[in-house]
Specification:
By secondary structure, this protein is an alpha+beta fold. It folds into two domains: 73 residues, Ubiquitin-like (UB roll) (Roll), CATH 3.10.20; 65 residues, DNA polymerase, domain 1. The chain is globular, with a radius of gyration of 15 Å. Bound molecules: FE2/S2 (inorganic) cluster (FES). FE2/S2 (inorganic) cluster binds next to loops.
Length: 154
């Protein structure tokens, strides 16, 4: 079947119910999308599916083939997407494992809402778990991009 990932069309050889995550990682060698829980709960495998943050661990590749997929590798050619730059400015990652998923959720939020409120930030990011507890820095980075004041130092 044909799969469109990061603006490029691929012919993939996979069973229709194979989770998109494994096609991305094993067949297309796009390793930035991480396996976390495998149950669409932790958010480590978040990609954009037609612009919507979507868990690649539970999306059958046959369903993914109906739309456009963007992975962390597709946000920018050189890691200079504004969200990635803000992540650097705020030293967001700790171990880093969850961060591709966090960035994909944050970039989708900012694409649909350039000035999210704190409640909107928290709502949009609530499905992305960080075992290192980087949440205050994630919120600060998103606020930075939204041009809003930080509520105290983080
Ligand atoms: Fe370690 Fe989020 S930075 S799990």
């Amino acid at each position: 079947m044909k799969l469109t990932v990061n603006g490029r069309s691929y012919d993939v050889d996979a069973e229709p119910d194979t989770p998109l995550l494994w096609v991305l990682r094993d067949e297309l060698k796009l390793k930035g999308t991480r396996y976390g829980c495998g149950d669409a709960i932790c958010g480590a495998c978040t990609v954009h599916f037609n612009g919507t943050p979507t868990r690649a661990c539970r999306l059958p590749v046959s369903a993914a083939a109906a739309g456009e997929i963007v992975t962390i590798e597709g946000l920018s050619a050189d890691g200079s997407h504004p969200v990635q730059e803000a992540w650097r400015r705020h030293n967001v990652p700790q171990c880093g494992y969850c961060q591709a998923g966090q960035i994909m959720s944050a970039s989708a939020l900012l694409a649909r809402n350039a000035s999210p409120s704190d409640d909107e930030i928290d709502g949009a990011m609530s499905g992305n778990i960080c075992r290192c507890g980087t949440y205050p820095r994630i919120r600060a980075a998103i606020r930075d991009l939204a041009g809003s004041e930080e509520e105290g130092a983080s």
